[in-house]
Amino acid sequence: MKKYGYLGLFAAVILACVLLVVSCRPEAPPDEARTIPITPTEELNLTGIPPEAVDIAAYRLTVDGLVDNPLSLTYDEILAYPVFTEVVLLICPGVFNDNAEWTGVPLWAILKDASVSPEATEVSLRAMPVPLAGSYTNVPSKPYTVNLPLEEVMGNDSIFLAHTVNGEVLPLEHGFPLRLVAKDHFGYDWVKWVEGITVE
Predict the structure, then answer these.
(1) Domains of the chain, earliest start first
(2) 0.90 cut: is pTM over it?
(3) Alpha carbon distance 78, 188 (integer Å)
(4) Which of 11, 35, 83, 177 is the most buried (most CB within 10 A)?
(5) Contact assessment for residue 84 and residue 157, using Cβ atoms and an 8 Å cutoff
(6) Tens digit of pLDDT for each residue in 82-128?
(7) Phi and psi at residue 145, in whole multiples of 5°?
(8) Is pLDDT of 69 > 50?
C-alpha cells in the first residue's frame, strides 16, 4: 500500500475512535427522583476513600480566586446559612442509583457573600486530601476537583453544599462535612469532603 494509503487508513481509524468516544459520552441524568423510593442512609452506596478524620473545630471552607471578599467559613457559620432541601437522584452510570433527601446551602449564596468578580466564568470545588489505596498509601494524593460553569451555579438552588442527608448529619463516608449535590449531573461531579472553592 502506498504511503498516503497508510496515512488515510490511520486517519480513518482515529476518526472512528473519536466518534465512538463522543457517541458513548453520557447525557445528563434524568430527573427521576419523584418516582423512585428514598434510599435509606445506611444503604447509600459508598465511593471513594474518606479522610481518616475531620477536625470540625479546625475545619474551614475557603473561597478564593476571582472574588473581592475571600472567605474562610467555619462549619457553624455554614450551618447558619438559609438551607435548601431537595430529593435528588444520584446516578453513577452503569453502577448504581441512590435517591435521597439532601439539605444544605446553595452554592450561589456563598459565592454571593464572596462577591464574585465580573470576569469569572467557572467555579472549582476541591475535596480534602484522602488516603490512597493499595501500594500507594505513602504517596500524597492529589485532591479531587470538579469545575462547573458559573452561569449554571448562580441562582440555581439545586446545586448546593449538603451537610445533611435524609434528615441526618452527613456521615463521613458520604462526604462530611460538606458534599456537593448537583442536580442533573452524574455522581462524579458530586464532590465529597469539600474544603475549597476557587472562582476562575
Answers:
(1) 3-199 (3.90.420.10)
(2) no
(3) 24
(4) 177
(5) yes
(6) 999 999 999 999 899 999 999 999 999 999 999 999 999 999 999 99
(7) -135, 150
(8) yes
